[in-house]
Amino acid sequence: MDENFRRTVILIAEHDDEGTIGFVLTRPVDMQIDALISAFPKFAARVGHGGPVGHDSIHFVHNLGDELRESLPIVDGLWWSGDFEQLISMVDLGKVRVDDILFFIGYSGWSPGQLDAEIKDGSWIVSNLSVKEILTEDPKELWKSILKPINSNFKVISEMPDSDLYN
Question: What domains appear along the chain, each with residue ranges and CATH number?
Answer without folding.
Answer: 10-137 (3.40.1740.10)
